[in-house]
């Protein structure tokens, strides 16, 4: 479909009238946003239909990405960009007296994720569509996102994120494609025609209704699908008999019970009810997704035993691992395949991405909960486990090894183990992460299945994180190396020839300063707080967790504050420290860390002695759209997790791509960033992998030793409990206890001195602007290696067996 400016203006006015019976002068900003978004969806619909028809008619192998999270953010800007009409749309609307940028701000972020996991899934969907791979997302249409974060008196307060309050213009409800998902009940083996079948009775039936969102490829004809499932009642939402008797709550309790399945991302699972709901969520979208996939596949009239030749399913972390047992249920119980053939097909279809090294994040479910909620699925997993344990025993003749590798053991169903046994591929998400999985966390499985393990370092879509988020930088790049980098991001490497070019360095600086000034203006208009755009913008934006060590960052700020108090003439470049993070509602230490950050911010703001030299900003309700504003403005990228704990990271790639200099431990993908840019263009500190593993193995770390021997640390930790921060002495006593009495699990105190040295190096480097700008250009040039387009091509070639 060819769209010109005049056509777009006419179509927009027609859409506004059709939707709201309004003209431009009387329409609200939201109505204008909804009208233009609806029009953009219309423009993509034919490509969407043709893509689906093409996949079906040409019998193309299709990939389904199963994930609990899809942190897609706002879609209007990226959809306009990918359709290739963003500039024209901006001009057309301007001629109608409408500012497109204002409409972009109206859209509510679809907060269907918590951080890197969900944002990675969104990047992968974008890349699959943009490189022309038939790949779709499958997840849950949560009524409420993670939560909206408010900061009240320095504390995080969670309020519901009602992102669907005004509807979602991008989705299409497909009620005709709804399926039934079954929970609970009893399963009885029945022998029929010399074959054992399984009768499922007295179950709770839930209707899964799909809502489809188009995923538009960049300037091509590919539009893939993100299918999110919503839980609804099958028969009646409303019990009229109960209502007539005055039992008003009972009249709707069944409806609300069912709807709770798709109501909120990550319900609190500290209680049994929360655990049951989480497991329900996981099986709900997995079962619905697989039923839908099988139904679509059968329309091709291909035999079920050829399923793996046409379908590939990527399990994003352990949340969807129950898909392995559900596919086995469908193949054995419904398609009547023999076990061995069904399992061969299942493992060939399934592949698993591991995202963590932390033991607590490797999901496991109590048998009593799992068996009651998913009786047939438990039977299947038990059978998989028994057969696998026999194989392990046959190889090792050692019951201890069998115990260590069993999927069902010690009262739990271990989902990571199920994912490994039931898949043909197990990949880590950074070279270091994959090495640790092989050597330590999953070493027994690696020794048993060496052919399954591989690495696929994470990536980010450069279209959103550079082309869309940082148009000034993107334009500068295109003017100097041409526009081929947009389709082939690896060609950003051509910027290396400009790294020492004084004129280009100056332009890079001008772009960064313009972005900093723009963010400062935005922040002042929204919060009334003034930020100095000439200060260093030092940015740590990521999920708040102890291993990501926001505490280490705060301790550096306190150390710098005390140095300035002791020596007001200390020669430093003014610096603004930005934090953006949400803490899980039940994660007390993380929430106290947020309070500490805000307490330090207040302390500095109210001290004239350091005013103008350092400032701390906590970015309330951090989101994709807020990331798109702060990342282009960042000078320093804080990637300071404890070595061996961060699987990969993707914020490190986004900040690097926008010219920030990374201060980092050699953890996750930081190692590969260092390998790309060289030691002179990144600032590395802290313990190495072997040091951390040695401490953990020997349990030889003593945090009190570092507290006693470093006066700077002693001053900082004492301030947590002596009232000098202007809060009650008990306020941060738990943080103090965590670091000293509980021995500082993630080595904050051990790495403190090295981190301070690294921060001093950042200050000195920034004073030498020629060197700093050269480093920035070198980082941008090498960032193309971390485009998710490259990552997805490797998945397609090595795991999904799609040549691209």
UniProtKB/TrEMBL annotation:
Its cofactor is pyridoxal 5'-phosphate. Keywords: Carbohydrate metabolism, Glycosyltransferase, Pyridoxal phosphate, Transferase. GO terms for molecular function: 1,4-alpha-oligoglucan phosphorylase activity. The keyword Cell membrane does not apply. PROSITE patterns: PHOSPHORYLASE (PS00102). Pfam families: Phosphorylase. SUPFAM superfamilies: UDP-Glycosyltransferase/glycogen phosphorylase. It is an enzyme of class 2 (transferase). Its EC number is 2.4.1.1. InterPro entries: Glycg_phsphrylas, Glyco_trans_35, Pyridoxal_P_attach_site. It catalyses: [(1->4)-alpha-D-glucosyl](n) + phosphate = [(1->4)-alpha-D-glucosyl](n-1) + alpha-D-glucose 1-phosphate. NCBIfam families: P_ylase. Allosteric enzyme that catalyzes the rate-limiting step in glycogen catabolism, the phosphorolytic cleavage of glycogen to produce glucose-1-phosphate, and plays a central role in maintaining cellular and organismal glucose homeostasis. PANTHER family: GLYCOGEN PHOSPHORYLASE, GLYCOGEN PHOSPHORYLASE, LIVER FORM. Belongs to the glycogen phosphorylase family. This is Alpha-1,4 glucan phosphorylase.
């Amino acid at each position: 479909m060819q769209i010109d400016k005049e056509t777009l203006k006419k179509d927009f006015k027609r859409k506004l009238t059709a939707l709201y019976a309004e003209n431009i002068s009387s329409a609200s900003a939201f109505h204008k946003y909804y009208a233009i978004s609806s029009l953009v969806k219309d423009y993509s619909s034919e490509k969407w239909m043709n893509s689906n028809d093409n996949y079906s008619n040409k019998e193309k192998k299709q990939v389904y990405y199963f994930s609990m999270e899809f942190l897609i953010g706002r879609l209007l800007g990226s959809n306009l960009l990918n359709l290739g009409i963003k500039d024209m749309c901006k001009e057309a609307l301007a001629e109608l007296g409408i500012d497109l940028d204002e409409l972009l701000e109206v859209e509510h972020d679809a907060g269907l994720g918590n951080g890197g996991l969900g944002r990675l899934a969104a990047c992968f969907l974008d890349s699959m569509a943009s490189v022309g791979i038939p790949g779709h997302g499958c997840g849950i249409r949560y009524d409420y996102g993670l939560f909206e974060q408010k900061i009240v008196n320095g504390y995080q307060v969670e309020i519901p994120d009602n992102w669907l309050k005004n509807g979602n213009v991008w989705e299409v409800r497909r009620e005709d494609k709804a399926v039934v998902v079954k929970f609970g009940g009893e399963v009885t083996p029945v022998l029929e025609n010399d074959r054992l079948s399984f009768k499922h009775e007295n179950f709770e039936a839930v209707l899964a209704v799909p809502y489809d969102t188009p995923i538009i490829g960049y300037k091509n004809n590919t539009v893939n699908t993100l299918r999110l499932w919503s839980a609804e009642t099958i028969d009646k939402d409303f019990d009229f008999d109960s209502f007539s008797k005055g039992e008003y709550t009972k009249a709707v309790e069944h409806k609300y019970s069912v709807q709770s399945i798709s109501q909120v991302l990550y319900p609190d699972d500290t209680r049994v009810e929360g655990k049951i709901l989480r497991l329900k969520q996981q099986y709900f979208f997995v079962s619905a997704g697989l039923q839908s996939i099988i139904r679509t596949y059968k329309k091709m009239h291909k035999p079920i035993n050829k399923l793996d030749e046409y379908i590939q399913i990527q399990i994003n972390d352990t949340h969807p691992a129950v898909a392995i047992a559900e596919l086995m249920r469908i193949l054995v119980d419904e398609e009547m395949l023999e076990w061995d053939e069904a399992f061969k097909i299942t493992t060939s279809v399934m592949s698993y991405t591991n995202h963590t090294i932390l033991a607590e994040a490797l999901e496991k479910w109590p048998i009593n909960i799992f068996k009651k909620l998913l009786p047939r699925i438990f039977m299947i997993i038990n059978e998989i486990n028994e057969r696998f344990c026999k194989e392990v025993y046959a190889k090792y003749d050692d019951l201890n090894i069998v115990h260590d590798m069993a999927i069902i053991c010690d009262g739990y169903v271990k989902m990571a183990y199920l994912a490994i046994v039931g898949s043909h591929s197990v990949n880590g998400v950074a070279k270091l992460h994959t090495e640790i999985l092989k050597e330590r966390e999953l070493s027994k499985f690696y020794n048993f299945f060496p052919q399954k393990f591989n690495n696929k370092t994470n990536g980010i879509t450069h279209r959103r994180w550079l082309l869309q988020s940082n148009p000034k930088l993107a334009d500068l790049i295109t003017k100097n190396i041409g526009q081929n980098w947009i389709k082939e991001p690896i060609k950003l490497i051509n910027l290396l020839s400009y790294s020492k070019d004084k004129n280009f360095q100056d332009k890079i600086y001008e772009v960064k300063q313009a972005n900093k000034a723009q963010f400062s203006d935005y922040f002042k208009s929204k919060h009334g707080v003034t930020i100095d755009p000439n200060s260093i913008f030092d940015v740590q934006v990521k999920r708040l967790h102890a291993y990501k060590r926001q505490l280490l960052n705060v301790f550096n700020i306190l150390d710098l504050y005390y140095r300035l108090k002791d020596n007001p003439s200390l020669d430093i470049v003014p610096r603004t420290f930005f934090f953006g993070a949400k803490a899980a509602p039940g994660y007390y230490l993380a929430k106290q860390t947020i309070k500490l950050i805000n307490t330090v911010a207040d302390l500095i703001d109210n001290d004239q002695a350091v005013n103008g030299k350092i400032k701390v900003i906590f970015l309330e309700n951090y989101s994709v759209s807020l990331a798109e504003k702060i990342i282009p403005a960042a000078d320093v990228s804080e990637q300071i997790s404890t070595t061996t704990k961060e699987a990969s990271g993707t914020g490190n790639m986004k900040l690097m791509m926008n010219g920030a200099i990374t201060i980092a431990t050699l953890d996750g993908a930081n190692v590969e960033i260092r390998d790309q840019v060289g030691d002179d263009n990144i600032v590395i500190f802290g313990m190495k992998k072997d040091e951390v593993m040695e401490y953990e193995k020997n349990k030889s770390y003593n945090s009190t030793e570092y507290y006693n021997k470093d006066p700077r640390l002693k001053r900082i930790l004492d301030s947590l409990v002596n009232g000098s921060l202007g809060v009650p002495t008990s306020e941060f006593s738990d943080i103090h206890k965590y670091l000293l009495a509980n021995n500082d699990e993630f080595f904050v105190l051990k790495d403190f001195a090295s981190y301070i040295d690294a921060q001093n190096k950042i200050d000195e480097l920034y004073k030498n602007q020629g060197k700093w700008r050269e480093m920035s250009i070198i980082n941008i040039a090498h960032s193309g290696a971390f485009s998710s387009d490259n990552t997805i091509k490797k998945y397609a070639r090595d795991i999904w067996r799609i040549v691209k």
